[in-house]
Design a protein that fits this description.
It is a single chain. Helix 1 packs antiparallel against helix 12. It contains 12 helices and 4 strands. A 4-stranded antiparallel sheet has the order 2-3-1-4, with helices on both faces. The chain is of the alpha+beta class and about 325 residues long.
């Protein structure tokens, strides 16, 4: 699992520029590659920081640690959804010391359901569809294995998950009008495909399947940066972590839905504090930060608040990744 996240960090760093180039949905801000890279980096480095601790043999506990770190430092829609995916995938794996076909299928299914439910207005043709397709493909293969917990059965399920993800990525171009018009596939979907292929590679000890990306529309290095030709998006992206009661969490989601878009709320951790509050990671796109910050502060005291313009300088995200040591 550590090898998977480390490999995903490196791979997303290498692909961030091309992912950014085709990032036009839900806003053409050209930062999906950067956001995914920085979020996965947070997950990978949280495990590397535990290097002096006794070896963790519980797969679920290890991924839960990585997922919490990713959620705390998640960037953008794509990073937040991957963090939710990782946290949820850890749950069926709790108490297990190795991955099997059945556990993989359960983890992918739990993860895609939680990711879909985190968004107030989930849309097919995005990385959500890729997560779902991977989960369905793995489950179909596992169902035919009659409980076989061998590494061979796991390999078949991983192959199927990646193949399902690839088919879903190709289909995204026809599911969203913005992608159809631009003749590109979804950037977040491609990022999720890369992450799943890194999992397959790490578990099976095989190389990444570079041919997966052959023919994906917009993904050739010679293709233009599609997002650069799109009109700038007005507004800001607001993210924070906040402790709320279940009622206040429902109230916040409702009020964010009324004034914003791309609303994502996901619980951080599984337990309530002494006051019955749960910690939540919040993400929303709004025309102006003032009203949404006021709403959030009326319900609790936010932490790790970030406010960023959706229309960012076109080279800023590439510089952010390059400063992390990864360059295409």
């Amino acid at each position: 699992m550590k090898r998977w996240l480390g490999k995903a960090e490196t791979t997303l760093g290498n692909h961030s520029d091309r992912l950014n180039a085709i990032n036009i949905f839900p806003v053409a801000d050209g930062d999906t590659g950067t956001n995914l890279y920085l979020t996965v980096r947070a997950a990978a480095r949280s495990l590397a920081a535990d290097g002096d601790q006794p070896a963790q043999t519980d797969v679920g506990a290890l991924l839960a640690t990585a997922g919490q770190a990713a959620l705390e430092e998640a960037r953008g829609n794509s990073g937040t959804l991957f963090s939710v995916f990782l946290c949820a995938a850890a749950e069926p794996l709790a108490g297990h010391t190795r991955l099997t076909s059945t556990l993989l299928a359960a983890a992918l299914n739990r993860a895609q359901i939680r990711a879909w439910s985190a968004l107030s207005d989930p849309v097919p043709g995005t990385m959500l569809s890729v997560m779902e397709a991977a989960a369905r493909a793995a489950a179909a293969v596992d169902a035919g294995q009659n409980g076989d917990d061998s590494n061979h059965a796991l390999g078949l399920a991983l192959d199927a998950a990646v193949e399902g993800a690839l088919a879903a990525v190709i289909q995204t171009e026809d599911q969203l009008d913005a992608l159809t018009s631009a003749h590109v596939v979804d950037a977040g979907g491609v990022g999720m495909l890369l992450i799943l292929d890194c999992l397959r590679s790490a578990v099976l000890g095989e190389e990444l399947q570079s041919e997966l990306l052959d023919g994906l529309h917009g993904y050739d290095v010679a293709d233009p940066h599609i997002h650069a030709d799109m009109p700038d998006d007005d507004g800001v992206e607001v993210m924070c972590t906040i402790s709320l009661s279940p009622l206040n969490a429902a109230t916040l989601r409702q009020r964010l839905d009324e004034i914003g878009e791309s609303v994502i709320m996901s619980q951080v951790g599984s337990g309530a504090d002494d006051h019955g509050n749960y910690r939540w990671r919040v993400h929303v796109h709004v025309p102006d930060a003032g009203p949404v910050v006021a709403i959030i502060r009326s319900l609790g005291e936010p932490a790790q608040m970030s406010i960023s313009e959706l229309a960012q300088p076109r080279n800023a995200d590439v510089d952010a990744v390059n400063s992390g040591g990864h360059e295409r």
